[in-house]
Design goal:
There is one protein chain. The protein is of the alpha/beta class and 753 residues long. It has five domains: 194 residues, Rossmann fold (3-Layer(aba) Sandwich); 127 residues, N-utilizing Substance Protein B Homolog, Chain A, CATH 1.10.940.10; 32 residues, no CATH class; 61 residues, Alpha-Beta Plaits; 204 residues, Rossmann fold (3-Layer(aba) Sandwich), CATH 3.40.50. It is built from 24 helices and 28 strands. The strands form seven sheets. Strands 20, 21, 22, 23, 24, 25, 26, 27 and 28 form a nine-stranded mixed beta sheet that branches. Strands 5-2-1-6-7-9-10 form a seven-stranded mixed beta sheet. A hairpin with a 5-residue loop joins strand 12 and strand 13. The radius of gyration is 28 Å and the shape is globular.
């Protein structure tokens, strides 16, 4: 097979050697740039580059693939398959779709466990009995693609990460060479990952390697193994001396207090410990089996290992999640993982979530205030200290937590996160920051004012200043839907008014009719999914804007309807409601795991006329019939839902990625055109307020397809929505809903020549 190989370190080099030995045509190699190595900083080529050059294979070392600069070169190479092994660069959709057989990745864990940078190390750190290798069909997520093949590998209880990695590398190279011909033969059946059980494996650092002799023997033993060869586990003596430990062995204790010296020589039998090692000590309760609350998963860490486990401590959970979010950016994933790890429920879970999202929503403001009292800025602080400060100030400023409580709890957290040396700084800075008068602040320009007062990144602030100069700050600070959760009642089980009554009776703090017909706004103590009425299918969660888009489709009983970008299924449910569960409704999404969400939602609501299928909306699928009506709620920049997804406030609006997004939207519209019957209705919608993705996209579509005309939406538009010749726009400050756009169009006869 003609393969384009992408990889960088030793494991990738071994895999590349194996592919050469198997006789595959390696058309080119992509790897990271040469970098200075060692004390003398000698510019050194990556191992993969050395292997490729030895075989006379062209080598490319671009800074990034995300700007589209390599797309033409990759297409010209005409690979049948792209094989990725520890490349270290994100592959955009244009690259993922270039080869005939797509892109596969060798990941050294049993996915979905330990996604991310250091899966082998975390398996050892957690004391796991086994790990493995997974060959995955790549998608745009972080190790989220369907698994093609996996093989388990047992972990010896005395084995270090370095030793295990050598074995994993050999197995991975072999399995990879077995999978490639099976892909060509079409004998592999991709298996969707169980995303609910996914966890992350973050990159290690020297700070993370610290342990204490008062921790359990099992934890210390695993920590020493897992941090070997790098960064090397260490502890601090009572005299303040830092000692690195490269080897250790857990032994039985007999009631001695943790930290007690048991011997000055290694216990027999030696089992390989070097002479001159440090005295054996009683650590915790001696040899112990690793237990749930002592295990790490994803970006979690063990008790007292940097990200603490405490009894129902929502503040600690919020800070730990914020640290991890800062590192990898997946806010919902890291928060959910931390809440599960800390085993928080009810009010504690809600409080931790509130702290987490309040910090994300107001981070620009919080950072500005804190920096008034930090001469060296926040960036110089350790990540846990930085997030402790942000979380405490957020509580005092936005969550009605008394200043004294916020400050005192923050000081306690410095000790919990082993940052006691920062307790004085935290106390002093917060005492001043909590009383800071933001009205006295002065800014260089309007963009900087938006970044601080609206807590936005520069790109988003500049976008709003350019397109909505008089409303920019209000858009950033507005609470769409009044900060409540938008729902839709299941008509099979009752009306919207009846749902309101049931919600209030079931413990909801507030429930009322929304401005979109049939919608309900509610306020819950925790997650709506935890409400028994949700489990029983009385309602589904769906934004008012999304409901309006589906209502404008005006699906009729007995028709054929396609929801082209349907996950997680809320709009599909509403369309089925319009159709009275008759006719045929095709609910599509490009990712199989998201199609699973649709199926779950449809089943929970008791719908019978829905067929959920995996489908790439940018291409016409012959399995889909000609439709009477189509809803295309396309992927977009999300600039209309900044309040609900606060991490979007800080997104980079890179021109290349924006251009790629516009191409995708355009392709979906063209697909819909081909699937729609003459006289049929097409509704295009987004959750953005970007004119390029909305009115300009529609104008371009109409220019390509003059057989389409814009028609009046089937549902009444809420007050404040602006309707024009190319669709209707909702700006949160004008309508009270999310920012979104919709355009209803009719196909008038056959396509004009």
């Amino acid at each position: 097979m003609r393969i384009l190989f992408m990889g960088t370190p030793d494991i990738a080099a071994e895999c590349l050697k194996a592919l050469y030995a198997a006789g595959h045509d390696i058309c080119a190699v992509y790897t990271r740039r040469d970098k200075p190595v060692g004390r003398k900083q000698v510019l050194t080529a990556p191992p993969v580059k050395e292997v490729a050059l030895a075989h006379g294979t062209p080598v490319f070392q671009p800074r990034t693939l995300r700007d589209g600069s390599e797309d033409e070169n990759i297409r010209a190479l005409a690979p049948e398959l792209i094989v990725v092994v520890a490349y270290g660069c994100i592959l955009p959709k244009s690259v993922l779709e270039a080869p005939k057989y797509g892109c596969i990745n060798l990941h050294v864990s049993l996915l979905p466990k330990y996604r991310g940078s250091a899966p082998v190390q975390w398996a050892v750190l957690n004391g796991d009995a086994e790990t493995g290798v997974s060959i995955m069909q790549m998608d745009e997520g972080l190790d989220t693609g369907d698994v093609l093949c996996c093989e388990k590998i047992a972990i010896d209880p005395e084995e270090t990460s370095g030793q295990l990695f050598d074995r994993v590398t050999a197995v991975g190279a072999r399995v990879l060479c077995e999978v490639v011909p099976a892909i060509a033969a079409g004998t592999l059946k991709p298996q969707p990952q169980d995303h609910e059980n996914a966890c992350l494996a973050p990159m290690l650092n020297k700070e993370m390697a610290e342990f204490r002799l008062t921790e359990s023997a099992a934890h210390i033993h695993n920590w020493v193994r897992g941090m070997n060869p790098w960064p090397g586990a260490w502890f601090v003596t009572s005299g303040g001396k830092k000692l690195k430990v490269m080897e250790c062995r857990a032994v039985e204790a007999h009631g001695e207090a943790p930290g007690t010296v048991l011997a000055t020589k290694p216990p027999a039998p030696d089992r390989g410990l070097r002479r001159g090692c440090h005295p054996a000590a009683a650590c915790g309760a001696g040899r112990q089996k690793a237990h749930g609350r002592h295990r790490l998963c994803g970006r979690s860490a063990p008790e007292n290992g940097g990200y603490p486990l405490m009894a129902a401590n929502p503040r600690a959970a919020a800070v730990a999640a914020l640290v991890r979010q800062e590192q990898d950016g997946f806010s919902n994933l890291v928060l959910d993982a931390e809440l599960k790890r800390q085993q928080l429920e009810g009010r504690d879970k809600a409080f931790a979530s509130a702290i987490f999202y309040t910090v994300l929503e107001h981070r620009g403001t919080l950072d500005y205030i804190l920096c008034q009292f930090l001469p060296k800025g926040l960036a110089k602080l350790d990540a846990p200290v930085r997030e402790i400060l942000r979380a405490a100030l957020a509580q005092a400023r936005y969550m009605q937590v008394p200043v004294s409580a916020a400050v005192n709890e923050a000081v306690k957290l410095t000790r919990a996160f082993k940052k006691s040396s920062a307790s004085g700084l935290v106390n002093a800075v917060l005492r001043k920051a909590c009383s800071y008068d933001l009205s006295t602040a002065s800014f260089k320009n309007e963009v900087e004012r938006l970044m601080v007062l609206g807590s936005a990144g520069r790109d988003v602030a500049e976008f709003l200043h350019k397109n909505y100069p008089d409303e920019a700050l209000d858009i950033l600070t507005y609470k769409a839907d009044g900060g409540m959760t938008s729902l839709r009642a299941n008509p099979l089980k009752g009306s919207a008014d009846e749902l309101c009554a049931k919600l209030l009776a079931s413990g909801a703090k507030e429930a009322k009719r929304g401005i979109v017909p049939g919608s309900v706004l509610a306020r819950f103590e925790g997650s709506p999914a935890e409400n028994e009425l949700f489990r029983q299918g009385y309602f589904h969660v769906e934004g008012q804007a999304s409901q309006l888009a589906a209502l404008c489709v005006d699906a009729q009983p007995g028709e054929t309807v396609i929801d082209l970008c349907a996950a997680p299924g809320g709009k599909t449910i509403l369309l089925a409601e319009q159709m009275h569960s008759t006719g045929r409704l095709y609910s599509c999404d490009a990712a199989e795991n998201r199609v699973g969400l649709i199926r779950t939602a449809v089943q929970r609501m008791g719908l019978t006329n829905v067929e959920a299928l995996c489908n790439d909306a940018t291409k016409v699928n012959p399995a889909l019939p000609q439709a009477d009506r189509i809803l295309a709620d396309v992927p977009c920049s999300g600039l209309g839902i900044l309040a609900k997804k606060p991490d979007l406030r800080y997104k980079k609006l890179e021109p290349a990625r924006e251009a790629e997004l516009l191409v995708t939207q355009s392709a979906i519209l063209d697909t819909a055109e081909q699937l729609l019957k003459a006289g049929g209705r097409l509704v295009y919608s987004t959750c953005t307020i970007d004119p390029a993705e909305n009115q300009q996209q529609i104008a371009a579509f109409l220019a390509r397809h003059p057989e389409f005309t814009v028609v009046e939406p089937a549902a009444a538009l809420p007050a404040g929505m602006t309707a024009g010749e190319h669709g209707a726009l909702s700006v949160p400050t004008r309508t009270g809903m999310d920012g979104f756009f919709l355009c209803a169009m009719q196909k008038n006869g056959e396509k004009l020549q």
